[in-house]
Amino acid sequence: MAHTIAVLDFGSQYTQVIARRIRECEVYSKIYHFATPVEELKADGVTGIILSGGPSSVFAKKAPQPDPKIFKLGVPVLGICYGLQLMGKMLKGKVSRSKAREFGLGALSVIKPGRLFHRLPRKLNVWNSHGDKLTELPPGFDAIGTTDNSPFAVIEDRKRNFYGIQFHPEVFHTERGVDVIRNFLVRVCKAEQDWTTDDYIKQSIKDIRKKVGKSRVILGLSGGVDSSVAAALIHRAIKKQLTCVFVDNGLLRKGERESVERLYGKHFKIDLRVVDASKLFLRRLKGVTDPEQKRKVIGNTFIDVFEKSLKTIGKADFLAQGTLYPDVIESVAIDGNPAALIKSHHNVGGLPDRMKLKLLEPLRELFKDEVRAVGSALGLPNEVVWRQPFPGPGLGVRLLGDITKAKLDVLREADAILMEEMKNSGWYGKVWQSFCVFLPVKSVGVIGDERNYAWVIAIRVVESIDAMTADWTKLPYDLLGRISNRITNEVRDVSRVVLDISSKPPATIEWE
Ligand code: XMP
Questions:
Q1: Is residue 347 part of a domain?
Q2: Beta partners for 134?
Q3: Do 305 and 351 sit in the same domain of this protein?
Q4: How far is the CA of 418 from the centre of ligand 1 (A)?
Q5: pTM (whole model) above 0.70
Q6: Boundaries of domain holding 70
Q7: Fewest CB within a 10 Å sphere: which of 81, 279, 293, 353?
Q8: Which one of 156, 170, 175, 365 is the catalytic residue?
Q9: What are phi and psi of 24, to 5 degrees?
Q10: What is the pLDDT of residues 1-13, one digit of tens each?
Q11: What is the mean pLDDT of residues 434-463?
């Protein structure tokens, strides 16, 4: 790669966000271990270095340090937060311990716009999160921006092209943060802005081939965006070395299995093995009504079925997963804080070590919108790329109480009507999720002159940015009326349709 921006990772939760912002600027970057020797950076053609933030104090005994020779490499360096303090300390300025952390939004005053703040306002709201602070400039540096708490919030050594920023330009809350990063990349590092999704795909294909060699890779395809894009990408890289397994757990929506078979088997010509385990799942779920117990049964049965299917497929060395960067953070947060486990999500690290498979996770650095762009570029249809999220346990957690095939069929029919109406009216793509929930209560209705004692279906439609919070969507009454009419008329055994108008919190998006 002719131009590579190196992001040295000092353990910040935002390192991947920095990399994402660099991709937004269409510049190529690579994340490196913080202590990567300068020779390696040089060999990779690094033309700029960003030192990430990190949780350590520069005074800590084992404070992570970069190779000091990075400051002699002759390329621009930008230190962010901990990166700035490191720079300050290593280049002979003074950093002081601070008892109080500066945390949250602050007002930045730009004293000298220079190249970093080129064409940016002189006042910007910026997001801080730091303890230590630079109290004396290293020789050769000037302060070019200040906040109430830091006279040296932004520093510059214009001659050597070294910059330090105390706040986090990469986070969403910092105003024009991405423009500050772009200025560093383009005006200071002179990076080319020519790194596109197609380049990303080419690079991933190279990486996948290098990692996998001649080995076989197995991927559990769910039909969701993440596993679909992972499958298409890996298939492009290694073709027949990839085998996808799709488990029909009997908890799928109407026509789901058939559309997976059509797209991946027929269209992409991926070696797709469909395992029909619906009877086994339903047998094991018989009489299970507790939501967490349902998830456990479904999760464990999935592993059993998947493991068994591997025996018939033959030896593989890699297990591919469509893990995204936000999954990685969420799982870490859950591991570190058991209280955060509200529902047992199991996207990451789902399969036990005893399977002795190495993991292949080509989307691990990407965010959802980037995954969608990659999916589209690989030729996945919009229907897949813009699919709403669907929980791993499927309709199992949307059918309250005891699960039977007959009830599932009722839910499937109702859900298919809702989905069709959402798509036809253009609302499907505007909301986070829209689905039906089967309520285990019977209610009286009337058909002709006959009393009809039948099930109740709830409609759940929510808007959300990240599923952490959500609000119910105010769908037009005529659309709701049409959905309700069709469900009560077309689905036997449903006498009533109700609308869920709860936000999250205190409710959750799913009912179980
Ligand atoms: P809740 O119901 O917790 O849902 O507000 C938040 C998001 O997570 C999805 N969800 C799950 N996904 N396994 C999954 O893979 C699960 O057990 C599970 N439970 C909820 C839900 O659809 C929503 O998008």
A1: yes
A2: 95
A3: yes
A4: 19
A5: yes
A6: 4-188
A7: 353
A8: 170
A9: -60, -30
A10: 568 999 999 988 8
A11: 94
